[in-house]
Amino acid sequence: MFLLAYPIFIKSAFNTTLNALGKKIPMKVVAFESDDWGSVRMPSKEFCNIYQKWYNSEASPYALYDSIATDDDLTCLFSVLHQYTDALGNSPIFTFNFIMANPAFQRIKDSDFREYFYEPFYLTLSNYSHTGQYIDLIKEGIERKVIHSELHGREHVHIKRWLSLLQSKNAASLEAFNHNTYMFQPQKPHLKSKSLFAALDFDSTEELGGHRQILYDARDLFRDTFHRAPGSFIAPNYVWNKNHESMLNEIGIQSVQGTKFQNIPKHGSSHYKKSLRLMGNNNKHRQVQLVRNCFFEPSHSRRKDEVNACLREIDRAFRCKVPAIISSHRLHYIGRLDIKNRDRNLQMLKTLLREINRNWPDVLYFNSSELAKLYMA
Questions:
Q1: In terms of Cα–Cα distance, which of 175, 209, 203 is closest to 191?
Q2: Pick from 202, 316, 361, 365: most CB atoms within 10 A?
Q3: Count of beta carbons in the 10 Å neighbourhood of residue 56
Q4: Which stretches within 168-241 are classed as H helix?
Q5: From residue 167, how far is each of 115, 146, 171, 372 by CA, in Å?
Q6: d(C-alpha 316, C-alpha 352), whole Å
Q7: How far from chain centre, in Å, is Cα 365?
């Protein structure tokens, strides 16, 4: 059995305490949650080079690796997941959290950046090479139970802030736009430290009406694509408030994914109020709070040994009798911009899954909605 000597420092003790305060379950459950599937980010290596010039430094891992998945990316990930099974014979299953739409760039340009238009993500695929089987592969992955689709939002950009930058002729934002992306976060004073990617952030409560429409649109696009309603949701950049939870309740969301802190917008401030979240707790709408307490993020982690660090987090969760919810962003499995990154991370994922099965032979692999239902039972 994998043995863990807990390091004695505040962060570890804090995370252990949070696990201990979560609602217990009677089995060892591992769930993988992976964000941003379907959304645009870095469209090409050419634009990656342009992006780095703006920042005058090495680009972030999201700029270096993150893009629309190729058919081969999906096939390779699914192949790894099929190689392992839990105590009941089920494969590890990734909850793919989908951004359901991307900006319709030409229509926005035709409006002189005065109006926003979007297109379903499956239409965006036609702008990218090697995506001819993308939708069929996603459906196959769902049928074979190695992935499970859930909702991440309509788009991953704050529309009002983005259009404001474009209308002001911000050079970097316009160049990104011309490459069919919004992948540029201006520094001060452009957005006063506000994120361009937190779609449900707001500067005034007057924006909330538009957010309701965005969430309803996202729900409808999800139903049209996957032929069922979403049951779980994660907010872009983990930014949302209680009004959004009411809206999510209206569209049938039963569980809310996230990290241990919720980022709540503060009126007139560039900072967020941090609200602590506990595993399995319910809000007033009885939506189950799913808290990511483990991380497998090899492309941008500063940890020397990502696999063993994740195993320690899983062990910590199981010792506290709570599920191990592993955050693992799509960028680690994308080879469009750097195939070596994808292949290296898939090998690490194999090692992680092998060690999970070896250390905890009674492990069960759940998707996020299955886990929420376990708490609702």
A1: 203
A2: 365
A3: 6
A4: 171-178, 208-226
A5: 10, 43, 11, 43
A6: 16
A7: 19
DSSP state for residue 92 in the 8-state scheme: P
Distance in angstroms between the alpha carbons of the first and the last residue of the chain: 30
Q: Which residue has the tokens 């109020």?
A: 273
Beta bridge mates, 37: 98
275 sits in which H/E element: strand 272-276
Instruction: For residue 166, give both structure tokens.
Output: 């474009």
> How is residue 357 written in tokens?
């099965």
Query: Where residue 267 falls among pLDDT bands split at 50, 70, 90?
Result: confident
φ/ψ (deg, to 5) at 191: -120, 10
pLDDT per residue as tens digits for the range 12-66: 889 999 999 999 999 999 999 999 999 999 999 999 888 887 775 566 899 899 9
What are 288's strand-pairing partners?
255, 282
Cis? peptide before 26, omega within 30° of 0: no
Report the Cα 236 to chain-centroid distance in Å.
7
Q: How far apart are CA 186 and CA 207, in angstroms?
A: 22
pTM over 0.85, yes/no: yes
